[in-house]
Each structure stands twice: as structure tokens, then as C-alpha cells.
Amino acid sequence: MPRVLIVGSGLTGSLCACLLRRELQSGVHVVVWDKARGAGGRMCTTRSPDSSSHSADLGAQYITVTPAYALSHHSFYSELLSSGILQPLRGLMEGARQNHGDTNYVTPLGMSSVVKYFLSQSGADLFFEHHVTALFRRGASWEVQKKVGDSETFDAVILTMPVPQILQLQGDLVPLLSVQQKQNLERVVYSSRFAVALFYSPDVAFGFPWAARYVTHNSCIRYITVESRRRNTADSGRGPSLVVHTSVQFGLEHLDRDKEDIQPVILQELYRLLPDLPQPMSIKCHKWRYSQVLTSVPDSPGHMTILEKPLLVCGGDAFSHSNFDGCVESALSMLSVLKDQL
Ligand SMILES: Cc1cc2nc3c(=O)[nH]c(=O)nc-3n(C[C@H](O)[C@H](O)[C@H](O)COP(=O)(O)OP(=O)(O)OC[C@H]3O[C@@H](n4cnc5c(N)ncnc54)[C@H](O)[C@@H]3O)c2cc1C
């Protein structure tokens, strides 16, 4: 039975693992490695640093579907809606821009629940803290090295991390790229942002009415959300949580600063915007060096095949577009390559 390694347990990798299992059933052994301590990637749901049961979505916030994708990806949406993973957005979104006909969905259990749902359906062997550092071609297989522990061999490898992280891999990958492929990968551009989550005690209630607010004319903060209101859930015993995203411009200007240095700058601006905000119990700050794709691989092919035998394929939102439907497109296009090759 062929052994396939999927690198990355974000939405693209998880969907790919799930679709592979559904298409090829037990004809393939799927293994997923991620360098992080949990699944989700840029759709992560983080826990508060204190031991309370707070959680917050530091990355993706909503799933917005256009009428065209609502039709073509109908099966994915109906599955997630019927299993309760997705719900229509109900909270007030102050200052949000909405295209006519689009529908917004939220995740009561946090964005990572979407990724975990597909992983749970995949039957894949899942390993965290497995940071891939190099790939070597060994006859009909790939030897995959990781930061810690022995290397392993696989019949096919699928890479779903952001493109700059693919290009950093040592070994035979970069030398195998054609000039055109290398140029196309090097042209991919991501925005960068900082995200801060603030976790409050149960006695705190916010006086403002919105679930999320898009802040305009502010060089630092672009977006603030109350987690439970956005996700359509009750705080039930826990206190509320706020998530703040900085503007892309701010992220770019401070990209090389440590998040510890930037956190007080963001908090100062937050308290200027919301002066009545009480002090939180705990705070978590994250720097998204690779946030959303601004320039994707030309013509959005969904994937790039680097070698057919042994198979090495790259995918992810950089090969389509940076949202749920972009990841579905990429996973579907990688699935068709895998079905042909395996
Ligand atoms: C702040 C922010 C807000 C966003 N808002 C939205 C939104 O509202 N709606 C929406 O639809 N989308 C949104 N997005 C975009 C969306 O999150 C992404 O398009 C999607 O999550 C990309 O999934 P992916 O699986 O392609 O990549 P990723 O989620 O980046 O997954 C890649 C995985 O690879 C792992 N990895 C990387 N390098 C290695 C390595 N060397 N070895 C092992 N593992 C490795 C990473 O840990 C990660 O888990 C947002 C993103 C961010 C950051």
C-alpha cells in the first residue's frame, strides 16, 4: 500500500487527507506531519495562557461563500452545516464590506473545528511537532528529514505550507524546480499581521453592541471581535474574549519586531479606541508572517507537481486563493493528481 506524507495540518492538508481516504479508502496509507503542537494552521483556535477554558481564533474568522462556490462546493458546506461545525453568522458586523449574494458562516467551536472535522474523517496518522527540514529522492521514494528524530521514507509527499517555507526546505526540492516553477513560487506575496487575544474574567460584560468592528482610519488596528458574539455562542461560566487584528500596513512596518515588543503598542491603541475596556486576565499575541495571499501562483492552478515519480506536489491557498474555497480548490486539484499517480 503506498504511503503518502502530507506536510501541514491546516485546511488544505486536512481536506486532502480526508478526500484521499474517501476516494481511495484503504488503498493508501496517509500520514500527516505538522511542526505545530495542534491542527489548524492559519485556521487555528488558541487556548488562553491561564488554565481557564477560554479559546480564541487568532487567524481566520469567517467563511464567506460566493453564490458560485455555494453551488460548486455545495457538498462541503452542507456536510459542515449538518454536522453543526458551521452556522450562519448572526452577530452585528460594524463597518464590514459585503458583496451582494455572499453568505457568511461562523464556527461555534472555533475555526480549527473545521480543520479537525476533516482530519477526523481522514483516518490519517497524525503527528505534531514534526518539523520537516529536507527532502531527498531515494529511488522510488522520498526520504523526509525532520528537525528532531529519524528521517522516514514515503512513496509520495504533499507540501501544504506557505510557499516561502517550501522554498526553505533543504535537499532535492529546489534543484528539481524548473526556472519557470521557481519564478512562479518566488512571485507569491503574503500580507503580514499581528493578532492579539485578550481573555477576561466571568464578571466582565462589554457595553458595545457589535460582534465585530472593522476599524477605519487607524494605522494600527483594523479589526476587533468579541469571540462568543461572532461565533454565536454563550460565554457560559467563562468570561468573554476579544481578538484584535492589526492592519496589513502595520504588520508590514513591524514585521521584523518581536511580538513581545509590539503587543504593548497594539494594546495602547486598543484602549484608546475602547477606553472603558477592563484589564484582561491574560493576553496572547501572535505574529502572522504569512497571513493572507496577496499574489498567488499565476493562473491559480491549485497545485504544482514538482516530480511525478516519486510524486512530490505542492498546494495550499497560494495556488488558488486565501480562504476556505481556495483551500478546497487546491485539495481537489491535488486529489486528482494523486488518484492518477497512485
Ligand atoms: C489573520 C488571518 C485572517 C484570515 N481570515 C480569513 C477569513 O476570515 N476567512 C477565510 O476563509 N480565510 C481567512 N484567512 C486565510 C486562511 O486562514 C488560509 O487561507 C487557510 O487557513 C490556509 O490553509 P493552508 O492549509 O493552505 O495553510 P496553513 O493553514 O498555513 O497550513 C500549513 C501548515 O503547515 C505547517 N508547516 C509549515 N511548515 C512546516 C514544516 N516545515 N514542517 C511541518 N509542518 C509545517 C504549519 O504549522 C501549518 O499548520 C486568514 C488568515 C489569517 C492569518
Automatic annotation (TrEMBL):
Domain Amine oxidase: 101-332
Cross-referenced InterPro entries: Amino_oxidase (IPR002937), FAD/NAD-bd_sf (IPR036188), RNLS (IPR040174)
GO cellular component, one term: extracellular region
An annotated Gene Ontology molecular function: oxidoreductase activity, acting on NAD(P)H
Protein's name according to its UniProt entry: Renalase isoform X1
Keyword Flavoprotein: yes
Pfam families tied to this protein: Amino_oxidase, NAD_binding_8
